[in-house]
Design goal:
about 220 residues, disordered C terminus, UCP010219, membrane, transmembrane helix, transmembrane, mainly alpha
Length: about 220
């Protein structure tokens, strides 16, 4: 169980940022999956939005991002690179496309994102309410202090509030985007979905690492001879 959590912590955004004392552009890029990962995350949704805005036709709007997702996966296979992220993205696109196709409503392309954001918000909020904020668990593992931060009021308070900030981000996405979904405003919904994605995630990730570095003591360095 602890080994699985360790792998998850290292693969998290904070895990990628934990390589240095100060966040760097390279570390931030790595935390978001690199240039290719960012492109694979953004382009399918952008393509759906552009095609639907231009045609107001659901079928080509769905086919375009699926074809792009397949292309991303094939490119990784050909280059013998890990395909997990691309395949995961393709499955998400396929599920979103299926929901939209079954309902005949373009706005249902974004339903999966609502459930994902809601699940993250609820899980993080519950972790705070039970006294084990997720950000603290991840940070404690990465900083080599385990769960000892729970016995330090300042660290415990910082991790609680930092986790709540992440809850607020996921909740804000729902509060802003759900009214647009129910009103059927696909164009504005898709635009805000893109703007509230990586542009919100990246600065919050940097803030989180700055807070973690500020409240957790640095590991002692071995003496040099």
């Amino acid at each position: 169980m602890s080994a699985a959590f360790g792998v998850a912590a290292r693969k998290s955004g904070l895990g990628a940022m934990a390589e240095g004392d100060a966040p760097t552009g390279k570390a931030l890029l790595l935390a978001m999956g690199g240039v290719r990962g960012i492109v694979e995350a953004i382009l399918p949704g952008l393509l759906f939005l552009v095609v639907y805005t231009l045609t107001l036709d659901l079928l080509p709007s769905i086919i375009a991002p699926i074809a792009l997702g397949v292309l991303f996966s094939v490119a990784r296979l050909v280059q013998r690179q890990p395909v997990t992220q691309a395949v995961g993205g393709l499955l998400g696109i396929a599920l979103s496309a299926a929901l939209a196709l079954l309902s005949g409503r373009a706005e249902d392309f974004y339903v999966v994102g609502f459930w994902t954001n809601g699940a993250y918000a609820v899980a993080l909020l519950v972790s705070v309410l039970v006294g084990w904020p997720v950000v603290g668990l991840v940070a404690g593992y990465l900083m080599g202090s385990g769960t000892s931060w729970r016995s330090h009021p300042g660290q415990r308070r910082a991790m609680r509030w930092l986790t709540l900030v992440w809850v607020a981000m996921f909740a804000a996405r729902l509060l802003v985007q759900l009214p647009l979904y129910f009103s059927g405003n696909v164009e504005l919904l898709g635009t805000l979905r893109l703007l509230m994605g990586i542009p919100l995630y990246a600065p919050l990730l940097v803030l989180s690492w700055l807070v973690v570095r500020a409240v957790f003591p640095k590991a002692p360095q071995a003496p040099t001879e």
